[in-house]
Design goal:
Layout: E1 5-8, H1 10-20, E2 30-40, E3 48-58, E4 64-67, E5 72-74, H2 80-88, E6 92-98, H3 108-125, E7 130-137, E8 140-147, E9 155-156, E10 159-162, E11 168-170, H4 184-190, H5 192-200, E12 202-206, H6 212-222, E13 226-230, H7 255-266, E14 271-275, H8 283-290, E15 294-297, H9 302-314, E16 318-330, E17 336-348, H10 364-375, H11 381-386, H12 400-418, E18 432-436, E19 441-443
The structure holds zinc ion (ZN) (2 copies).
Length: about 475
């Protein structure tokens, strides 16, 4: 099994460190973070164990027996209410404290505190529980996870990810592996921590065609540690002008499987897992998506985009969504002319950027039209109009250099989130820009702010409680899977 990964929102991280570092006499302080745990299996990858911070609770003065700059002693009984909440809401208890004097390691006293807490939690909530400990010292998070079944084993986390802009990744493994020469140029441009951070990430790619396949292959070359590839389509002859890693012999085969075989064949440090299905229909594929730290939306499917758009809030993920659009007209002689043709890159964080609805990338009518077409593939334009439905999206010819270039911009966007290097001019939005390959311009359009938007403004889905996956009964009940 994979080492656990922790995710905190930027606001949770900021609130925690302000509190922990805020004691007037520089004493240690403590807090509780309640996590939801997503334990997910993906074929081709080790099991994923992802903990998403749901709630931060600061220690009340009354819970503290004594404290100094080198110790913190608390009253166990005062935590009983929180233990109860953990059981009732299937949350994992996380004990957080700081070392104001900077010792970056958990101490022997910390071991003792954790075992006391774990014992009390086990007695209250049962043998199956896990327990997270986080330490803030020297402006870094250290974290580890224990289980009630083997309390003496403290498993260090693979990383603690903070979904701020830029991303903050703490506690990642310092690599000294055989692939350092492969990544020497990346390290030369962005530093060795960049190489180690990107290796620590699990990245989902939904759609593995014109944009998804170049992203996956170049992402593997860039050293992304784990890829989750999701697509139910077969490769068509007409795709061969733009896909990467696939050839004529693969026509008729499932794209994701052939793409995984290609990535495996590169023999780099990337592991790829696959789902031959749709994220909006297959509960296991959605769980696979939820196990990712970062998701690239590389589909032209509005129903799939709708799911990724809600998932980024529910599962505290980064969504980088790509699309192409343009217009082809005929000239006087009847020859086609590309009037404009652009690649769009949207970058949405749980607490930053407009959602795909507000960016006018998806809308309810287009989603409903696509669902209708899936049910009734022979539906006519007139029948659609009678139902007040219409197809959406832009005309995109699907020409290799343009789809690839869009994928390249999107991967570089992930680089920029890990190690900022871009200098955005005032006229460009960080959450959405378009590269026009005809007009040779990079631009952002201004979309109106909808203060009622349940996604990016009202945050109704941020860290939402799920009875059904994403509260969509057709994707299955959530408690089947923890
Ligand atoms: Zn300590
Ligand atoms: Zn919105």
């Amino acid at each position: 099994m994979n080492a656990p990964r922790l995710t905190l929102l930027g606001s949770q991280h900021d609130a925690l460190i302000e509190y922990l570092d805020g004691h007037p006499e520089n004493h240690e302080r403590a807090a509780v973070v309640l996590f939801s745990r997503l334990h997910v299996s993906v074929e081709g990858l080790p099991d994923s164990d992802r903990y998403i911070a749901k709630e931060v609770i600061f220690f009340d003065e009354a819970w503290t027996n004594s404290s100094s700059s080198i110790h913190f002693d608390f009253n166990l009984a005062s935590l009983r209410e929180i233990f109860r909440k953990c059981e009732e809401e299937s949350l994992v208890f996380g004990f957080v404290h700081n070392h104001p004097q900077g010792q970056a390691m958990f101490s022997a006293q910390d071991d003792g505190n954790e075992l006391t807490l774990l014992e009390a939690l086990k007695n209250r909530n049962g043998e199956h529980i896990t327990f997270v400990a986080m330490l803030w010292a020297n402006k870094c998070w250290e974290a580890r996870v224990r289980t009630a079944a083997s309390p003496d084993i403290a498993v260090p986390v693979r990383h603690t990810l903070v979904t701020s802009d830029p991303l903050q990744i703490f506690g990642y493994q310092n690599s000294s592996d055989d692939h350092s020469e492969v990544h020497a140029r990346g390290a030369a441009a962005f530093g060795k921590p960049f190489v180690d951070k990107i290796k620590s990430l699990r990245v989902g790619i939904v759609g593995t065609g014109g944009t998804g396949s170049p992203l996956a292959t170049l992402g593997a070359r860039a050293g992304i540690g784990e890829l989750v590839l999701i697509d139910d389509d077969e490769l068509a002859l007409s795709n061969l002008n733009r896909v990467r890693g696939l050839g004529k012999k693969d026509v008729g085969e499932k794209k994701v499987q052939k793409l995984k075989a290609f990535i495996d064949g590169l023999e780099l440090s990337t592991n790829a897992g696959v789902f031959v299905s749709k994220v909006d229909e297959d509960p296991l594929a959605l769980d696979g998506l939820a196990s990712c730290d970062v998701v690239f939306g590389c589909t032209d499917d509005f129903v799939g985009r709708d799911v990724m758009n809600i998932a980024l809030y529910a599962y505290a993920q980064v969504l980088i969504d790509l699309g192409l659009g343009g217009r082809i007209l005929d000239d006087k002689t009847g020859e086609p002319v590309l009037r404009y043709h652009f690649g769009r890159i949207s970058t949405i964080l749980p607490e930053d950027g407009q959602c795909l609805f507000c960016q006018d990338v998806i809308c309810e009518v287009w989603i409903q039209t696509q669902l209708e077409r899936r049910q009734n593939p022979d539906i006519t334009e007139e029948e659609l109009r009678e139902k007040y439905l219409e197809d959406g999206g832009d005309e995109a010819p699907g020409v290799g250099p343009f789809t690839s270039a869009t994928a390249d911009f999107a991967l570089a966007t992930l680089f920029d989130l890990i190690k900022p290097f871009r200098r955005f001019p005032q006229v460009l939005r960080r959450d959405m820009y378009q590269v026009d390959f005809v007009k040779m311009e990079i631009s952002s359009h201004q979309s109106k702010i909808n203060h009622d938007c349940p996604y990016c403004e009202q945050k109704e889905f941020l860290l939402m409680k799920e009875k059904y996956r994403l509260q969509r009964p057709m994707i299955g009940k959530r408690d089947e899977y923890v």
